[in-house]
Inverse folding.
């Protein structure tokens, strides 16, 4: 099949990945059906052979000189190194051998590719550690402004590096110093060689090791690859071709070109990470008129709304926005974290006792830790996909061509209590951002990060410093949820998160000409705030419904001696055929003794007074009712927006 992807005008190619399960296969030499267990066993033998060679390569070249040689991009003769890692290692003469077994050259390629990727990725960490060690401060726990300037100048690209990354690496170096009484020489002394993942990078092979073809119906593919028939193959006849049919996930488009996957063993089954390339609309860095601003939160994980840049310059927010609340999911995540901490504390205690009789209990606890960690990982992954899908749906419904969100990579939670700090530091913002970029690219929507300074502190209409209060009906009680503008000319007040997404959207639209593409990650971002552009990043108030003076100058009720009663004073007349008369005005009778369930969740888009009776207690997470029971979101409006976008896009619930 052709590997060239045809593109139309305004389209670009995009490579993504989807997971699939390889259930069975057929041995082409014997014609026998290879069961799921047998297939996992044979793939496992092959991964062990590749992992052994990868580990030997990493142990041999895990040093500063070899990593710098590979990262320089040139060989000893001054020729440019190939982009493929396995070809670069062969150009440098770094080969791998597996003693006592017979493997073909393509298995060596996969080992070299995996080792080359690991060695290339450590270069960034090595440069950062070298910069930190060269400018080691007198007090590592608290750098002075001069120390910060020096360490950023010593690290390549340190000017825009989040401070949290520098602090975490500094803590790692300080821990090494406390243990050994000296500073490490480089990152290779600070970190051991990485563990080798058991997987087969079939992308490094050609048709002599693996091929993949898509079926005519577009829903299946046939993967052919050579696998060993024994764990220690002694000759080439111990390798046979196995044909494995794969059912393609529905996320792979029909016009996509699929590539050789990466195989790994998970849960006794063979998993395939299928890479595919398909056409998507091109995204633009500037020229946007409608943008979606997204603000991060804790219980209210995401707050979003659309803003429009008019031709004459002002920015308007036609709707009240929407929210994605995940209080129940985060509560379950918090309980799993507490369980993991207790299990780790017990295993650490057993290690300190060093009693051989406790080895069995320690093994049980380690297995339970692995299961809890897997549950936390799966929950984070589900939450990230759900939040990202919701944000992209809001952008599509509003007709936005760009999503602006805060860049909180440098945020470190502190000063808000141990529990709240931990919950803030363990949010899944990075995963949500990655998933959001993945989903937005399919719709041709750009995702741009903006600086987070003063997005919740300043008024979105006049940029005046806001006063934060407990609730709108408690304007004198200090708090953080409700924001009030003290300016008499403005007088805006609203939910803190609502004002934040308006500030983010306005800042992005005003600074869109400053959008750049990061050379390392390839993501779009706005690095800094320009004062002249920030002065234009305000939300203009819409036209008022009543422009006349409506101040009270007299009685508002008509002068009558006896106003009409609200309820009838006499019973209704009896209707024929035994039917009761019309009920007087009032509520219909009901046997309900409590309000509906949703009324107790306080899930309104705008803030109301803080509940004084009982706080919200998620029931579904405690009883195992499921994920979506406690992930509340404002649904998007899928109707076509008006040309001037003067429609209400929120709260949409």
């Amino acid at each position: 099949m052709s590997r060239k992807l045809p593109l139309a005008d305004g389209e670009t190619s995009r490579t993504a990945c989807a997971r699939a399960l390889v259930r069975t296969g057929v041995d082409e030499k014997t014609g026998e059906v290879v069961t799921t267990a047998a297939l996992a066993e044979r793939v496992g033998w092959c991964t062990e052979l590749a992992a052994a060679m990868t580990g030997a390569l990493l142990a041999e070249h895990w040093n500063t000189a070899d990593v710098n040689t590979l990262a320089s991009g040139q060989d000893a003769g001054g020729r440019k190194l190939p982009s493929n890692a396995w070809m670069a290692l062969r150009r440098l003469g770094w080969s791998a051998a597996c003693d006592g077994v017979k493997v073909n050259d393509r298995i060596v390629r996969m080992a070299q590719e995996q080792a080359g990727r690991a060695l290339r990725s450590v270069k960034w960490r090595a440069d950062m550690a070298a910069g930190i060690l060269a400018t080691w401060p007198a007090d590592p726990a608290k750098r002075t402004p001069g120390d910060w300037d020096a360490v950023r100048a010593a690290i390549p690209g340190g000017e825009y590096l989040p401070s949290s990354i520098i602090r975490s690496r500094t803590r790692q170096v300080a821990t090494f110093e406390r243990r050994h009484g000296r500073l490490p020489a480089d990152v290779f002394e600070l970190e051991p060689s990485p563990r080798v993942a058991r997987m087969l990078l079939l992308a490094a092979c050609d048709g002599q090791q693996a091929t993949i073809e898509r079926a005519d119906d577009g829903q299946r593919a046939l993967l052919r690859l050579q696998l060993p028939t024994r764990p220690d193959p002694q000759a080439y006849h111990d390798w046979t071709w196995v044909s494995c049919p794969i059912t393609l996930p529905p996320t792979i488009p029909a016009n996509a070109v699929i590539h050789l996957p990466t195989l790994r063993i998970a849960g006794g089954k063979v998993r395939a990470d299928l890479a595919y390339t398909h056409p998507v609309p091109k995204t633009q860095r500037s020229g946007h008129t409608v943008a979606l601003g997204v603000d991060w939160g804790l219980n209210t994980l995401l707050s979003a709304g659309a803003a429009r840049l008019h031709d004459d310059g002002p920015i308007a927010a036609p709707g009240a926005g929407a929210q994605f609340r995940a209080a129940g999911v985060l509560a379950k995540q918090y309980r799993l974290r507490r369980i993991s901490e207790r299990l780790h504390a017990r295993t650490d205690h057993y290690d300190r006792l060093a009693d051989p009789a406790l080895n069995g209990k320690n093994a049980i606890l380690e297995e339970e830790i692995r299961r809890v960690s897997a549950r936390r990982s799966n929950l984070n992954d589900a939450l990230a996909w759900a939040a990202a899908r919701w944000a992209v749906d809001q952008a599509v419904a509003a007709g936005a061509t760009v999503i602006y969100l805060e860049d909180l990579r440098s945020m470190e939670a502190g000063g808000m209590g141990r529990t709240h700090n931990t919950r803030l530091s363990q949010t899944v913002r990075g995963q949500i951002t990655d998933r959001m970029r993945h989903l937005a690219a399919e719709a041709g929507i750009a995702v741009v990060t903006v600086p987070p300074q003063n997005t919740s502190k300043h008024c979105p209409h006049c940029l005046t410093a806001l006063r934060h209060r407990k609730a709108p009906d408690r304007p004198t009680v200090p708090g953080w949820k409700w924001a009030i503008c003290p300016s008499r000319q403005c007088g805006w007040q609203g939910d803190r998160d609502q004002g934040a997404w308006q500030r983010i959207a306005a800042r992005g639209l005003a600074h869109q000409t400053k959008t750049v593409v990061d050379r390392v990650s390839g993501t779009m971002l706005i690095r800094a705030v320009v004062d002249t552009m920030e002065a234009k990043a305000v939300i203009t108030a819409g036209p008022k419904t009543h422009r006349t003076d409506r101040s009270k100058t007299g009685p508002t009720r008509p002068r009558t001696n006896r106003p009409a009663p609200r309820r009838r004073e006499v019973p209704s007349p009896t209707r024929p055929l035994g039917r009761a008369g019309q009920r007087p005005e009032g509520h219909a009778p009901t046997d309900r003794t409590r309000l509906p369930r949703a009324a107790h969740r306080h899930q309104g888009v705008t803030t109301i007074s803080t509940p004084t009776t009982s706080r919200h207690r998620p029931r579904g997470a405690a009883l195992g009712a499921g994920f979506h029971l406690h992930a509340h979101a404002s649904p998007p409006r899928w109707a076509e927006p008006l040309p001037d976008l003067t429609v209400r896009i929120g709260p949409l619930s």
About this structure: The chain has 14 helices and 23 strands.
